[in-house]
Specification:
This protein has 445 residues and is an alpha+beta fold. The protein folds into 2 domains: 253 residues, BirA Bifunctional Protein, domain 2, CATH 3.30.930; 92 residues, Rossmann fold (3-Layer(aba) Sandwich). Helices cover 39% and strands 19% of the residues. The strands form 3 sheets. It has an 8-stranded mixed beta sheet. The radius of gyration is 29 Å and the shape is elongated. Bound molecules: histidyl-adenosine monophosphate. Histidyl-adenosine monophosphate binds next to strand 6, strand 10, strand 11 and helix 11.
């Protein structure tokens, strides 16, 4: 196939026939975030490379292997965002958003870019919905965050997604853990890949999320971080669990979760499913109490999550979740003859002014082709306007499902069509009511 009509590997198009699913999810997620008091933040697609090096971490797979980094003509190193947390934190600091009053709560829907091996559920351009809170250290903030993600899955009717949580401690308690990992991996250094050999010195925790097979086998028996967390972190984790219990959110503690990004502290969590193959993590997040300070701000506890929309779509498909299809065309107005075309165009625009979905021919088709198109777009009603109709001042509107026709005046078409739509809605409501026979349970005298 010609490269001109072939998308780049790892990217996907969202076609008109599918866009409504995305719109539905975006609307639902926005609504969930807004209910919890979060406001939208929009940040640029690219940032200075150093922002991701510093926040995501120099020794992570994302920074070492997956970033789309390039020099601009002006010689600046720029990177397409591999995730949303760093950009949001940068914007929070740059614009002193903390002056709006803490906690600051933001959400975003954005594209991310990672040069990974493309496969089902893993793309090079993908979409994330994420939420971030700045300035809340309390365990209720963790539970609020987890609840929001969990409620999105519940509202979509998904049942096969489970929540796994862990605590990876703070900077202080991490020191002991890092030493334990160093000791363990040093014993197996001959089986580590080159990248992990350098991680062994700089950041042994990152060996735990290496995708290389031999590193993964060794990592399985490595010490787990939960055994090394300090009293404060442990108490915080217990509180998080208490609030999750109070909120009736089911979870399991998975002590092997460390997350693949360097900024995390204390609570980390993932929502996972077995229904979509190897890339089963639909959502990931946690605390990052040190990040804002690392980027030059005041010490500020923070936390968040992001879910991959493509993976969510896959889970919905696997679980057979259907989304409501968008409204179809209310009325297709076919026209025959020059004068009729003018009238049809006029009526179409009038109906649109009244918020109906109205269509008329804009390509110069014959009547048969116009009606074929009306069928194809699933128009609820159609009307044909010809010279005779202009003369009589009336035209017959046809219900495309039942074939029933109703004559409407062309002079007052909008009002007539509104009556017709109201009547059809009334009929639909009556038809959906239980019949008298079935609903009357009072019994006789
Ligand atoms: P992450 O785990 O790297 O975390 O990504 C979050 C989610 O994005 C994943 O659970 C997955 O659903 C989706 N995802 C990641 N990579 C790909 C890919 N190549 N193709 C398709 N989907 C993908 C973060 O990005 C953190 N910023 C989350 C966060 C926000 N933590 C705190 N606040």
């Amino acid at each position: 196939m010609d490269i001109l009509t072939k998308k780049v590997k790892g990217t996907e198009d969202i076609l008109p026939s599918d866009a409504y699913r995305w719109q539905f999810l975006e609307k639902l997620m926005r609504n969930e975030a807004e209910k919890c008091g979060f406001k939208e933040i929009r940040t640029p697609v690219f940032e200075h490379t150093v922002l991701f090096n510093r926040s995501v971490g120099e020794t992570t797979d994302v920074v070492q292997k997956e970033m789309y980094t390039f020099d601009t003509k002006g010689g600046e190193s720029i990177t397409l965002r591999p995730e949303g947390t760093a950009g949001a934190a940068r914007a929070y600091l740059e614009h002193a958003v903390y002056n709006d009053g803490l906690p600051v709560k933001v959400f975003y829907q954005l594209t991310c870019y990672r040069y990974e091996k493309a496969q089902a559920g893993r793309q090079r351009e993908f979409h994330q919905f994420g939420m971030e809170t700045y300035g809340a250290a309390d365990a209720r903030a963790d539970a609020e965050m987890i609840f929001a993600a969990s409620n999105i899955f519940d509202r979509l009717g998904l049942s096969g997604i489970r929540l796994e949580i862990n605590s990876i401690g703070c900077k202080t308690c991490r020191r002991d853990y890092t030493n334990a990992l160093k000791e363990y991996f040093t014993q197996h250094r001959d089986q580590l890949c080159d990248t992990c050999l350098s991680r062994l010195e700089r950041n042994p925790m990152r060996i735990l999320d290496c995708k290389n097979e031999s590193c993964r086998i060794i990592a399985k028996d490595a010490p787990v971080v939960l055994d090394y967390i300090c009293g404060d972190c442990s108490a915080h984790f217990e509180k998080v669990k208490t609030f999750l219990d109070a909120a009736d959110i089911e979870y399991t503690v998975n002590p092997t979760i460390v997350r693949g990004l360097d900024y995390y502290t204390r609570t980390v969590f993932e929502f996972v499913t077995d229904s979509i193959g190897a890339q089963g993590t639909v959502c990931g997040g946690g605390r990052y109490d040190g990040l804002i300070e690392e980027l030059g701000g005041q010490p500020t506890p923070a936390l968040g999550f992001a879910m991959g929309i493509e993976r969510l779509m896959l889970v919905m498909k696997a679980e057979g979740i259907e989304l409501p299809e968008p409204e179809k065309c209310d009325l297709y107005i076919a026209a025959l003859g020059e004068e009729a075309e003018k009238k049809a165009f006029e009526i179409t625009l009038d109906l649109r002014r009244s918020s109906y979905i109205a269509e008329t021919d804009i390509v110069g088709r014959g009547l048969r082709a116009q009606m074929k198109y009306a069928n194809k777009i699933g128009a609820k009603y159609s009307v044909v306007i010809g010279d005779d109709d202009l003369e009589s001042g009336c035209a017959k509107v046809k219900n495309m499902k039942t074939g029933e026709t109703t004559e409407l005046s062309l002079d007052d078409f909008g009002a007539g069509f509104t009556q017709l739509m109201l009547q059809s809605r009334r009929d639909a409501v009556i038809a959906s009511l239980p019949s008298e026979k079935n609903s009357d349970t009072r019994g006789g005298e």
